[in-house]
Structures are given as structure tokens and as C-alpha cells.
Design brief:
197 residues, 5-stranded antiparallel sheet, 4-stranded antiparallel sheet, 4 helices, 9 strands
Amino acid sequence: MPASSSVSEGMSVGVILGFPPAIAEELQRWRASFGDPMAGVVPAHITLVTTTPTLDWEATHAHVREVARRQAPFMVTIAGTGSFRPVSPVVFINVEEGFGECVDLHEKLQTGPLERDLPFSYHPHVTIAHDVAPESLDEAETVLKDYRATFPVVSMGLYEHDANGIWQLREELDFGTETDDDAPAFSADADGATASH
């Protein structure tokens, strides 16, 4: 069996929306400035499916690919800050435009081979500080309260949580691979992206 289709016992997957490089790098620098050790490991993103176990990689891959095929590209605006405190030591940037599309994608993805009960309601967001000192969480929430960036989302990444605890990209799945010719088109590059703070 080829390595690409082999599945290890207890394999976990995740699905995320990535950001244009310039925005991702800026947010990564901010995250590092708040002392978050994950800043150098985890690029800025919006999680659609958090760590979810699967015993059938082929079914999971087919499911995620089908959801991507049916999804049209959409615009995302992230703006302002929020926090999951005191439940969780997390400060994040809100998803404004695109919030509904993220929720819809999450609900479609978290079915079939990825169906499971979650201990919390899904809330799309961009983590900018996690598990750091309370004063650093306060700083993150204050410093980026006026941050705003808008960009097109044209694909989602399917990741595997490997045996070493590292997230490995298995495939970047383009949205709307079978859409009508007259559907609105978005460029996959960062030309349409804007950011301010």
C-alpha cells in the first residue's frame, strides 16, 4: 500500500483556512511579541476542524475534498480582539466577514468520517496569544483591538497530526473546482489582501 494512503491507528486530522503570507507573517510576529512559544510553530489560521481522530484516511480525504469542491471562494475580514478567558487563556482576533461561511464549512466538515461531539460550540477566530502570562494576554487584547485585514479565501488545508505531535499538510484543497463559468473569481495570491492596525 502506498505511504500516501496508509493510515496509522489513532490518526488525527485537522482542517484550516490559511492566510496570505504577508498577513500570516505579521500576525506571527505579533504572537511572538506576546511571548507565545507556538508563534514559531503554528502559522496564523482559522481552524475549521480541530484535532479529530479518524480510522479511515481515504474516506476522510474524499469527504473533505467533496466539501471543498462544493464551496465557493469567499472574502474574510478579521478585526478587533476577543478572549476565551476565564475558560481558556486565549486572546484572538475576531472573524467578521466570512464568519457564517466558516461556521457552514465547519458543520459540513464535521460529519461522516469526521463526525463527533465537541465539548464547545464552534467559534471561528485567529489565536494571537495562548497560555502566556495574564499581562501578556491583556497586552495582546489591547494592542491589536484596532487590527483589521481583508483577504480572499480560495482553499483549505487538510492536515495530519503525526506521531511526533507535528501537524503535516496532506493536501491544500481548492474551493469550487466544479463551479459555473460565470461564478465570481478570486485570485489565490495576496494582491487583494489589505491589513491595518
